[in-house]
Hints:
CATH architecture of the largest domain in chain A: 3-Layer(aba) Sandwich
Number of domains of chain B: 1
CATH superfamily of the largest domain in chain A: P-loop containing nucleotide triphosphate hydrolases
Largest sheet of chain B: none
Strand content of chain A: 25-35%
Oligomer: heterodimer
Radius of gyration of chain A: 28 Å
Shape of chain B: globular
CATH class of the largest domain in chain A: Alpha Beta
Radius of gyration of chain B: 19 Å
Distance between the termini of chain B: 30 Å
Amino acid sequence: MFCEHEVCEIYDLEYGDPVVGQGECDGFLGGTLDVCGTHSLLWCCLFWIGRTMVLQAIDDTTMIRVQEASRCFGRHVAVQDISFDVRKGEIVGLLGPNGAGKTTTLRMLAGFLRPSAGRVYIDGVDGYDGDEDVRNRVGYLPENTPLYGDMRVHEYLRFRGRLKGMHRRELRKRLDAVLVSCDLRDRSRSLIRTLSKGYRQRVGIADCLLQDPPCLILDEPTIGLDPNQIRQVRTLIQSLAESHTILLSTHILSEAELLCDRVMIMNRGAIIAADTPNALAGLRQGGEQVVAEVRGPAEAIQAAVGELPDIQDATFTKLADGWLRVCFMGQGQGEGRMQLYALLCRHRWDLRLLRAEVRHLEDIFAALTEEGGSEEGAHA
Amino acid sequence: MRKFMALFGKELGSAFLSPLGYVTVAVFMSATGWTFLQAVQAQEGSRMQLETMHAISVLIWMPVFITVICMRLFAEEKRVGTIETLLTTSVRDVTVVLAKYFGAMAFVLIGLGAAWASLPLLVLHAPDVEAVDGGALLGAGIILVLVALCCTSIGVLVSMLTRNQIVAAISCFWAICVPLMITPLMQTLPYVRQEVLDRLSVEQHILLYTGGILQAPPAVFYLTITAFMLFAAVRVLESRRWI
């Protein structure tokens, strides 16, 4: 692949941008390709086609790919160097305290903000430098569901459909479908400003679903709703999970545990942990918190328990009925409990309670974010 | 074009969905009518044309009228947050700005048209008033539309710079007043030639156009400002993506 022309344009292999300008042609260089000016258009086309094919071939199962993305607002770094993938059909939760960078991350994915550095791919297409239709592959529900209050529900959805470039017939069909799926048929002629917050949330989700995009990005979809409305919106999201990839941010950790296949915890603009909720629950503790109630000579029990290798931080409390409550951190997958049980059997001491406390995502979340993100979590 | 029409229709429609649009046009017509009446009474016996007085009466209230229309264009979208849903669809920034501009401009034209039509209606129903010159009336209409194009573009830009409607209203009003008051403002500066002042003066442009002289420079002047303001508005909207 050598060119006879002396003056050529040199193109970046990865992005197809001219990176060096003009120079002498000497064929392929490391990371750059010399292309003579007369053939540059053809080569550019080939690069873009090849690049798109390569990106699609990398991983057909990836819906969202974020590569070392950062976003700065002046000197403030809102998101710093984050990378993650969301596979097709997954529900992934983005957790973090206020100001952690969740909304900025979602805005970058939705195309509202451009990353200061790094890249964002939606279904294998660059979120910014790809074609504009990439935004039609994402349904985005911003925080607090902004809507035009002086429009009726069906007017608003029709307007949004036209804005997304939908044809009249297609729009009519999809409008009926989303009104049914979001249970808005009875309220389709209501003014949006008269709707309850739960219904407004449904209108926002219906808007996301209008074009039936494969990917949904929901920024705190249940914030400010009452428990019944939260349950309704959760059920709606669960029903959508069958056919969509969903990335949602939330403050409600039980919601993330309930809905998400995977959660990512953000703090100070970085992802400090990412895994399944169950795996995260075991991530920080390195064992389990165990409570036992035993009966026998207290001093002997304390001495014996203290010698068990897989039991740490044991505390003893004498109960009013003469039993002794033992709380400890058990190592491994129940080894501590088994050793305690064996000890009690050996000495024929009584046991009426032996329970491993379940650690919820709340504990992990608090532990990770209160540390200020200084400690490196596990990155999936 | 479908996206442009959707936004344009929404923008124009929203003006008439609430009473604000009707009230604004009614107040604008009343104010221009009252000012015109005062001007006619004050200028009795003078040689100033009726069409010129009417055009200046409309011009006096134009900043207020356009401010009311433009102040909410982007400021309201930013305050409510709908700008985020708007800009995350596949619609281009330039389409958003142009659709909002032409939506606002269409409403301004409705108001201007109503105010402008009041003079021929008055002549038609008041036998005491001498007939107006059709050409002068057309000239007045053309120059008023040109000024409105320019002022609305300024309103669009200013509305984009803030999310507070009050701030947007005050800024819009003063920003729109600048081209209308450019002559008195420049008269305060030393070494400004009268010829320059005449070329920039809106009053002079109105006198020219109502006198039947449809010169190109005033039209180019207003259209240039319009194009620059809309270009700036698009750049401001794009600035959220700047790194």
